Amino acid sequence: MKRSLGARLFDTANVILLAIIGIITLFPLYYVFVVSFTDPVEYIQKQGFILFPSHWSFDSYKYLLSTSAFKNATLVSGFLATGGTALSLVVTAALAYGLSRKRLMGRRILMLMILITLLFSPGIIPPYLLVRDLGLINSIWSLIIPVLTSGWYVILMKSFFDSIPVELEESAVIDGSTDIGVFFRIVLPLSLPALAAFGLFYAVAYWNTFFSAVLYINDQLKWPLQLVLRNMLIDSSTQAGGSAAAGMMAEQDIPAETLKMAAVVIATVPILCVYPFLQKHFAKGVMLGSVKG
């Protein structure tokens, strides 16, 4: 079918507009990437806008990864993203599975309590007092236990578990399986798309942990990567006695800007690398449980 002139002009205008939006969106990422790999000598000489460096260098990355503060922060964030995500998935899936079984006593009360957490927020002070009374101040677990699960994720996963035929569980029970066996051998394997989707959500949240670390972590050696990065971006010229992040950029010949950009890349790349492996489950997992019929 021959398209009219107006339709072709409309498509052309859409392509141009989307191309402009894409360039505006991707250019900051490109600039961060380019500056992070720019040779320090070249950056110092130009002291300006660099679209494509003449000499590429890994000096900024080598320096960052050689500092104890940045390595500790990377390890802390890695532990939060892996260990925290695993614990959150187990707790969320177990709670959602229990709520999806009608034989659970007090099911309505538990569901009401979860819904209340979605409607009302306690603010900052009560969680801080709770973490303090539990003795978790300055502990890595203070960044995991208070956010171990999410009421919204529990409800979504419960909706998914509701769609699993009860006959599968009944047949497993007849074969001698326990409730825990049914959960781990039948329910969880069938829930891989949902687990992948929620696992990605949890991993991103744990990897980007920032505000809770500001509240609960005083020891700079236990700071997550985002908190160290924030201090680097805010103030790279703090003298002795300042933060560990500022100390990383003191007494070295590498420009602070290239170090900042390299830190941003290091903090961003891991999640970008994980997403392609979960993509086939992600799109399906997001929609699972949302529509029944």
From TrEMBL:
Residue stretches making up the ABC transmembrane type-1 domain: 74-278
Record carries keyword Cell cycle: no
Superkingdom, natural source: Bacteria
Keywords associated with the record: Cell membrane, Membrane, Transmembrane, Transmembrane helix, Transport
Transmembrane portions of the chain: 12-33, 75-97, 109-130, 136-156, 258-278
Family, per entry: Belongs to the binding-protein-dependent transport system permease family.
Protein's recorded name: ABC transporter permease subunit
Source organism per UniProt: Paenibacillus plantarum
